[in-house]
Amino acid sequence: MSYEMQGAREVIRLSNGATYIERQVLALESSIDQNPSLAFDLSKSLIESVCKTILIDRSQPINDDFDLPQLFKMTINCLRLLPDNKTIDANLRSSLLKTNSGLSTTIQGLCELRNNEGFASHGKDGYFQMLEPIQARLAAQAADSIVYFLYSVHKGYTYVPNSSRLRYEDNQSFNEFIDETHELINIFEYTFVPSDVLFNVDMEAYKDKLSIYNQESDSGE
């Protein structure tokens, strides 16, 4: 039975349009049995992508020279990790900090696995013996838990979003306008909403039409 990353798939749902992350997740899931060594590369890169997505959402500067442990530390530092009714519980915060320290150790381990066993990171001897799916699944499960936790608290607890990142759900009236003026798109037995298709297929066209829509709305046309 093929492995599915439940946490990462929830990240895909919450991110609403982060197709790069979706492709990473699908590739990672299929690599576990087909190419276990590649799973170590993809586990690391998935966490990197989620960290960068969160940091950009929160208007945090990203240095291209940062490695994954540094990205993870920056991400943790800009997130509120506890709900409002638990933020003053010093013992709980201490316990969570210890857990985060454990996650940092896990990430360091994933980086080392990728460097030593990754399929795409370094060339290997032609007779190199790869690790097996059981180790690949361990790496994938670790990445799955980490990205789910990070992205869930990112989306679940209040923050000021980066206004420069366009989000489908932030333009409900425009989306409704598109859907009211265009027919549903049918391909075989599947039906797609016009606004969602435009947003995900041609972001620049969506932005252009949104700008015109907003200008006309402001002028009362």
Compile the SSE list and pairings:
Layout (H helix, E strand, L loop, with lengths): L5 H10 L3 H16 L1 H22 L10 H10 L12 H28 L15 H24 L15 H10 L3 E3 L2 E3 L1 H8 L1 H17 L2
Antiparallel strand pairs: 1-2
Helix pairs in contact: 1-6, 2-3, 2-6, 3-4, 3-5, 3-6, 4-5, 5-6, 8-9
- Pick out the low-confidence regions: none
Shape: globular
Our count of domains comes out at 2
Number of helices: 9
Q: Which architecture of the largest domain would the CATH scheme give at its second level?
A: Up-down Bundle
Beta-strand residue fraction: under 5%
The total beta strand count reads: 2
What's the quaternary structure here? single chain
The CATH class designation of the largest domain is Mainly Alpha
Structural class: mainly alpha
Strand order of the largest sheet: 1-2
The overall pLDDT average reads 87
Intertermini distance: 56 Å
Question: What can you tell me about this protein's structure?
Answer:
The chain is 66% helix and 3% strand. With 221 residues, the protein is mainly α. The chain has a two-stranded antiparallel sheet with strand order 1-2. A hairpin with a 2-residue loop joins strand 1 (185-187) and strand 2. Helix 3 (36-57) packs parallel to helix 4 (68-77) and helix 8 crosses helix 9 (203-219). The chain is globular and about 65 Å long. The relative contact order is 0.14. The mean pLDDT is 87.
Concise summary:
This protein has two domains: 6-156, Four Helix Bundle (Hemerythrin (Met), subunit A), CATH 1.20.120; 168-219, no CATH class. 66% of the residues lie in helices and 3% in strands.
